[in-house]
Every structure is written in C-alpha cells, then in structure tokens.
Amino acid sequence: xxxxxxxxxxxxxxxxxxxxxxxxxxxxxxxxxxxxxxxxxxxxxxxxxxxxxxxxxxxxxxxxxxxxxxxxxxxxxxxxxxxxxxxxxxxxxxxxxxxxxxxxxxxxxxxxxxxxxxxxxxxxxxxxxxxxxxxxxxxxxxxxxxxxxxxxxxxxxxxxxxxxxxxxxxxxxxxxxxxxxxxxxxxxxxxxxxxxxxxxxxxxxxxxxxxxxxxxxxxxxxxxxxxxxxxxxxxxxxxxxxxxxxxxxxxxxxxxxxxxxxxxxxxxxxxxxxxxxxxxxxxxxxxxxxxxxxxxxxxxxxxxxxxxxxxxxxxxxxxxxxxxxxxxxxxxxxxxxxxxxxxxxxxxxxx
Length: 351
Fold this sequence. Notes:
Blueprint: H1 2-16, H2 29-37, H3 41-49, H4 74-90, E1 97-101, H5 111-114, E2 121-125, H6 132-141, E3 149-153, H7 159-169, E4 175-178, H8 180-185, H9 189-196, E5 202-207, H10 210-219, E6 228-233, H11 242-248, E7 255-258, H12 264-273, E8 280-284, H13 291-304, E9 309-313, H14 328-335, E10 339-340
Parallel strand pairs: 1-2, 2-3, 3-4, 4-5, 5-6, 6-7, 7-8, 8-9, 9-10
C-alpha cells in the first residue's frame, strides 16, 4: 500500500507543480516557501546578500519542485513573494531576546533590531566591528525598544545610543551588565542610571577609578529594588573607604559579589555596617583570602542568620596574584552553618 502511494505521489506531483499558480484563486506565500526550501545554501545566501536580511532555514524538500515548473503567471508570483517576505518580517515582532557572542559586526547594521518591537533582552558579548556607528546608528534614528535586560561586554559602543536605550527603557530595565568599555565611554553612566533606571534588580558593573567608587556609593541607595550587585575592578584599592559601602547598600540587596582585595579587618567593618540582609556573598580567592576572612564571615552568619552561602571567584593577573590559604578545619566549621559553592557565571572571564 505504501509503495502504491509513493508511486501515485511521484506521478501527480510533477503535474501539480508544472503550473502551480493556475490552481489558486489567491496568492500563496506557502508556494514561495516551498520553492525556497529547494534552494542551495549558496542561493539562500544570495538572497541575504541582495537585501533580504533574514537568515532562512527550512527543512530539505521531498522533491525538486522548481524543476517541474513549465510556466507561471507573473502577478501571482509577485504577490505571493511579497506576502512571504511580509510574513518573515512579521516574525521579528515575536522576538523577545537576542544574544550575540563572539560575533563579527563589521559592516552590520542594527536596522533589523528596530523591527523587534517586543525585544526585552539584548546581550552583546565579545563582538567586533571596524565602525561602531554603522551598527548603532539606526537606534539614533528610530529607537522604540524598551528593554528589561541589557548586557554590553567587550563590544564597541556609541555612547549616545546607549543613553537613548537607557532613557527609552527607563523603569522597564531590570538587569544591567556594563564592562570597562561602557564605563569609560560614558563618564556619567551612574547618573543616567539614577535618573532613569531605578527599578533595576541586577547590576554588574566595572569600576575604573577611585572617584567612580565615590559616585557609586552615593547612587547605590537610589536602587531600592536591587537584589544583586556585582562589582568588577582593575585592582583598585578602596583603603578605608570600603567599609562605608555597607551603609550605602539598599535593604533589598540579597547577593553581593566583589573581586576587590580587602583585609579581614575591612571585611569585618563592611559587614558590621551592612544593613542589607545578604543571603549570598562572593569574594575573590586570588587576593590573599585567609582563615581570618572566613572567621569574620562565620561570625556575621551566626549573628545575622540571613547568610545562606558564600562563593569564590579567582580573578587576578599572574603578577598580581596573592596566595590564599584556608584550612580544612576552618572550612568544615563554616560549612556547618552556610553552604560554600562557587558562582556559575561563564561570562565573567570577559571582564
């Protein structure tokens, strides 16, 4: 029975596809999609290169339908093709998240992003371009995107565009990750966040200079919904100023991650000043972490009863590495009260 059906299909299909538009009363984008499925990779790439800036991926067709074509009416073909292109464009409205990692953006425009009216997450990591303005310029001309998550790490930026995105997203923006490039390119980035994005719950930011930390201390209290704060730096020394950060942290904060080099005494002062009910604390193991640090954390955990876990990062250049030491006995003592496990942040190596 199956073999008979196959025989019938092989005989009927060429006849139906000899003049496919003749059987239709209206245009049909489905026919165009079927023809496109027969294209080779090179032919599909040519569509992209000639202006159809959407990568087309369809499953291979059962037959080579274009080979059956004997004649067609131009106008049904034209209207069917237009409807097919429109259907592809309409898919952009369903895209809510875009992540580009290790991507060459040379001569690439973000015009396509402007079509993603419902885009909520934009993450660009380790991307390259010879001219950032080519990629970012469409945002200046027509940006209606309101993001809830924005990540920019190792990607050339247009400062004006980033400001536009932050202002347009405003109170919708909840998660922000900015590296050294962003902070250096936009000196007023903290003031912009304070003015427009006080609803953020997650902030990961690179600190470049001492004066920037002073600004951070003043602005952090404005983020009353902040739950996670991650600080990265280029081996800055806060000195006696770090313990003052404890006074500034909002009471909403639950996770604090810092890769700064701090003494056990400074850590103790910081935790004493901290009014946030921290549930997780992440510190840099590669800058002289000792049993004394763990004892400070254990005492804090017993006193506050809110700390659930601690973890470690291992961030240090070889020439700046400071040996750390934690005894098994001290670690075992701490584990009786709180968990110890490292964070799973695969993007952290890019900072």
